[in-house]
Structure prediction request, 222 residues.
Amino acid sequence: GAVVSQHPSRVICKSGTSVKIECRSLDFQATTMFWYRQFPKQSLMLMATSNEGSKATYEQGVEKDKFLINHASLTLSTLTVTSAHPEDSSFYICSAQDRDSYEQYFGPGTRLTVT
Amino acid sequence: GQSLEQPSEVTAVEGAIVQINCTYQTSGFYGLSWYQQHDGGAPTFLSYNALDGLEETGRFSSFLSRSDSYGYLLLQELQMKDSASYFCAALKAALIFGKGTTLSVSS
Prediction:
């Protein structure tokens, strides 16, 4: 089956630093990847849609300068949380859309803790 | 706006049948999906309804009625391992998730 990986799975960083999260589709090509954020006991909230070779589309209320998204290839999208603060601590999950079948597959998620 | 409403919590015993409802106020979506999420894990796909009616996948079934803006997930022969959060999600360009239902199964 289709596999999506995320790296790192867990990261702890200090306030003010930046953190990069990678999302890779391992056995299929994804023209579109999606980034979600999930706070404890809450639902997944769509942050942005990442299209290969073009700028990401951000949802209302998501700061594009704080959450930098790059989708440089058909198998890799990255989310960089810049100048992280404790309120950015959350579970970040990506999903990748198979360009042939249009099915979406979720990565295992990255738990970010900002101290 | 768009929203998908679910009950926040449901409890049941092993072997029972549970129905988790999802009512929505969104339009222009391709279909309604259901996902299961255990604590600390990513969502895993359970079922998808593109058309009105019932889809059956083993112990899990899902139903959609676009005219009623309503869907549900039916879980049969409940097992302890079914204790998790369940989300309905409308498939547009991205998946728009409901608020989630925490299912607790006891023996």
The radius of gyration of chain A is 13 Å. Residues 97 and 104 of chain A are 4 Å apart (CA to CA).
